[in-house]
Design goal:
With 508 residues, the protein is α/β, with parallel strands linked by helices. Helices cover 38% and strands 21% of the residues. Helix 8 links the parallel strand 10 and strand 11. The relative contact order is 0.13. Bound molecules: nicotinamide-adenine-dinucleotide (NAD).
Length: 508
Amino acid sequence: MTTATTSSSIPASVGRFGATSDAFTTFSDARHWIGGAWCNPISTRVTHEVPNPRFGKSMATVHLGGADDVDAAVKAGAAAQREWAEWPIRDRAHVMYRLRELMVKHIDELGWLVSHENGKIFGEAKAEVEKGIECVEYGCSLPNLAAGNQLEVSRGVACEVVYAPLGVVAGVTPFNFPLMVPLWMLPQALVGGNAFVMKASERVPLSTMRLAELLKEAGLPAGVFNLVQGGREVVEALCDHPQVKAFGFVGSTKVARSVYGRASMAGKRALCLGGAKNHLFVVPDADVNVTAENVVASFTGCAGQRCMAASVLLAVGDVDHILKAVRDRAAKMVAGKDMGPVTTQAARDRITSYIDAAEKQGAKIMLDGRKASADAGGYWVGPTIIDGCTPDMPAAREEIFGPVLSVVRVPTLEKAFEIENANPYGNASSVYTTSGDIARRVMGRVEAGMCGVNIGVPVPREPFGFGGWNDSCFGAGNITGWDGYRFWTRQRKITSKWALQRDQNWMS
Ligand code: NAD
């Protein structure tokens, strides 16, 4: 059912990614996947290199698509969706069971692919695949969760609720989790009976391509999942396309806000997750080792390129002994072994410019990652701790998206709440304390959707839903868990009267 032009030079399969180490490895160029086959863009001929951030050189080329490719993908989805929706939910979920088995079988291959195109170290990449598998497992469980309700509401009259698909739906994903974020959306949307058009980040298009092939191998009919490569033009075409009924987005706040408005104006259901500036509260009674271990893991993991990463440490009172332990632990991290590079040279420049500016404004660089390097080339920034930030400094206010922890010293918890509550984001917040009372007070006051006690990355694991508040999320609800299923489906209410009429009321 491929409606986009195909060419004989396009391989029927992208094969397996051959890397088993960090050594530079090239891979197939990125193409669209429409109607169950690889294809070229219809008209746009712009290409974009896929950088391997560890080496700073291209491992593949993406052929960026346009509105005509989106239209071809939506048409392929629409043609396949009706029959897919007629499969019983249990049969649709069986595709997820088989996908899970394939992901487990190919976990190392997938891990290396994520590691090479994104830059995160192999252990982190494999953990990303494992988290993606958990999302697929949630999809497997949907037949047990998605039973509707039925009730005899009047003598002989029954009301019933069933979850119906929306039709063709779309998702757009960021660079920092090439495999996991697509799997935040796909299991619920597909098991819900929809066809999907996805646009992966043009910086990391390769993992999603492999996912397309694994879905096919798992038994997903051609056209139910489609992938259009591209950038802004493709995203805007998805927002505008009248046949796309729901639009999911994960990326920066600036883009999330704008595409939420655009998709909503076009009459679509939209859920758009944005950026973050996560605050950690550290109080004097906190356990030194637990705090140091978790804070360092949070701000350096994935080189700080996580929407759940620690970004501002609110040091309440005298916590110098804890800050010293955080610094000592972070200083031991080895670039290339414990931590990967950041995504591009532009990202490196942006991150170091925040450190330079904070230093000029009078903050003290307690640990300086500006000179970090590992492999030849590549975009490296080491763990950095900036002490003595004031709340108005850009390093303390804006999303840096790198391995940088900005320390703001405050005399009281009240002052800490004031600063955390005033930041426009609302993704995550954590407290480090041995006091249940302090933990409860912080959990009750922070402006964040995902909160942690003595944990650095408080990601709600399945079946709990993932989603922030305020400028970190436009639209209602969470993107994973049951909210995800509700987002990608609509409720049909059926009222039936089969029995002979035996009484009279307003329904008669
Ligand atoms: P990004 O906003 O630059 O890009 C995200 C997607 O939007 C990509 O597919 C990109 O091609 C597309 N895009 C970029 N500019 C666009 C534009 N002007 N119009 C339409 N589409 C556009 O984000 P990124 O750099 O890929 O990812 C990092 C950001 O994502 C960070 O801000 C991070 O906090 C955020 N993020 C948030 C969550 C969450 O759950 N809240 C999860 C992961 C990442």
